[in-house]
Amino acid sequence: MKFGKELVSQMVPEWEEAYMDYNSLKATLKHMSWFKESKESAAPMASTPKGSLKRRLTLYRAFSGLTGTQRGSPRKSDDEVILVRAEEGEGSEGLYQTMFLKSSEEGAEQDLVFFKKLDCEFNKVNSFYKKMVKEMVHEAEELSKQMNVLIALRIKVDKVGFGNLGSNEISTSTSMNARHGHSRVHMDVIHEVEMSDGRHLEDRKGNHEKQTMEGFRPASLEILDHVKINMNTPETPISTIKGLLSSPNSEQSFSKRDLRKAEEQISIALKEFYHKLRLLKSYSFLNLLAFSKIMKKYDKVSSRNASKDYLNMVDSSYVGSSDEVNRLMERVEHAFIKHFANGNHRKGMNTLRPTTKKERHRITFLLGLFTGCSIALIVALTIIIHARNILYSKGRTRYMENIFPLYSLFGYIVLHMIMYSANVYLWRRYKINYSFIFGFKEGTELGYREVFLLSSGLAVLSLAAVLSNLDMEMDQRTKSFSELTELVPLGLVIVLLLITFCPFNIIYKSSRFFLIQCAFHCFCAPLYKINLPDNFLADQLTSQVQAYRSLEFYVCYYFWGNFKTRSNKCLESDVYKAFYLIVAIIPFWIRCLQCFRRLLEEKNTMHGLNGLKYISTIVALVMRTTNELHRGTVWKILAATSSSIATIVNTYWDIVIDWGLLRRNSRNPWLREKLSVPNRSVYFVAMVLNVILRLAWMQSVLGIREAPFLHRTALTALVACLEILRRGIWNFFRLENEHLNNVGNYRAFKSVPLPFNYEDDEENSVI
Description:
Structural class: mainly alpha
Domain EXS: 571-766
Largest sheet: 3 strands, antiparallel
Pfam families: EXS, SPX
Strand order of the largest sheet: 1-2-3
Radius of gyration: 34 Å
Low-confidence stretches: 45-76, 162-219, 761-767
Function: May transport inorganic phosphate (Pi).
InterPro entries: EXS_C (IPR004342), PHO1_SPX (IPR034092), SPX_dom (IPR004331)
Mean pLDDT: 81
Distance between the termini: 52 Å
Protein name: Phosphate transporter 1
């Protein structure tokens, strides 16, 4: 792989604009090479460079006389090509500028352009790295304070548990250490306060041994009097209710439960902080390598030796010489291994540095197998339908009204999984960091192959079940269908549920449980704190209305109908009709509650407007369903009016808010400033398709209940599939917009809540 592509593949997507623009500099060198070759072909004999030694010396003296810090050795020979200096003064601190000493030569304009671009890229990289390191140091100080409080909390909880320690200080006598070994561990923790300074670990160890021999006075537990524990943040139903009922001035107490919660939060914070440091270290390494590569290419193209001087400057700059990130990484490793891995180095490092997921050939093989089986089953199903003339058989209507709605459930799920698989493929192709946006644990996210494998596996099971249940006529002797084959759809649902909730570590357990957790948060809205995965899943649920109605039909058909004769009276039941409407409203109501929860927390009126949008959709859905069940002119007018309003509002929100498009004065007219897909026509096609697919509700309002060669239930399933396709299109552009917002803010890390809040601004330390 060429270095340019390798650099792009290893970039932190949210920092893409902060990296060196290697391809642009490479293009400048190509232009320089073309210019040089054209000159050589026009004049084979080498021309003597214009300008004299006197002129070059004059340039050198003028350069040396400028204000600034001189980089490189003070003695320069006539063979020197460039001089690099760091400017000083307000607004220019840390900026580097290169002077090209061969500017009098023919074609030197290309070199001047190259070094101007090179300086601009280097200053960008150096400034960004310095800014990020400063943020990391500040965060390390905050984590140090959190660790200090955690250590004091550990001792406080142990003190309450043992009941025989002093009030504010921990005795360090040998006898008490012998009686309370666990407390001695915490004294070591206090003495070794992690991440509180920049001393080397070896120095700490030596000081520890010295003070252990001489005795030391551990920190006072008074630090706990200046902090509050964030244990009742409204993130869960219980904490939300506690936050509403508890008094703000209630006295806080310390318990083992609080300690476990604090340890868990700080552990997560340390892991996330370490991940940031690793990304920052990778950023530095890739950019330094890129500057080395581009300077070597320049030497080759220009036949000069400028790389040595420039790379010396790069090595002496902040991005090339700072070792702060490595020191922070060592301190985090030491703290995490000692206090969150029981001193087990391998366990601690495996937690801090999870192994990347490897592509397995087994997945590719099974994917091909299941896909081939699915195609074969579809072909077999088509042949059997034509061979038996099923489309024109007497039992066709009974099958479509009783069996088809059962199997359509699996069709909706398979299609949605295929669309999500396509989304993952496109997100990866266009460098959209979906795993960060969704908050997946590193190495546990499913790729498009894994998702497509699951969908193809479910498709094989569903199609095989359909083939086993294609009988159109009842047994003349028993006047019923085979009981075993009629129970196949229900058995398939049970198998699917068992796989989904299986507690064993098979079939992507972490992903299954992540989905279950998000679904539980959705159904418990607004008691849980709302995050993007919950919002995203709730949006997916709004496109699966017919799937919920299929599940309702399962209950009615198998428990109140006669599945042996394929007959039911579901549509004659008022209870069924009521739930037919309720199950369709639930996903939109969930999104509405999520919006109002965010409105209360963030005080952003856009969330309130979004909630009103879902209310308009609920009204339209109620009117359409009522019109479908109770035909009448009034209901038809109400359904058409409410659906039109909801369609206009939802379409505007999709395109303008969720996708961030239709920006009139943007760099890309009527789109937005930044686009991930180079072909701009894709966005216009997507907008048109979104509008067209949102108008699928018209078939129910216009009374189009059947079409040529399509039964009513088949037409309903087709409209539901169109909505799933629209949702798949929406998914890509929604996450693209979210990713570009992260890129604009260089937001490559998730925020981790910390367990302790200081009541004052004084820095409390246990040293």
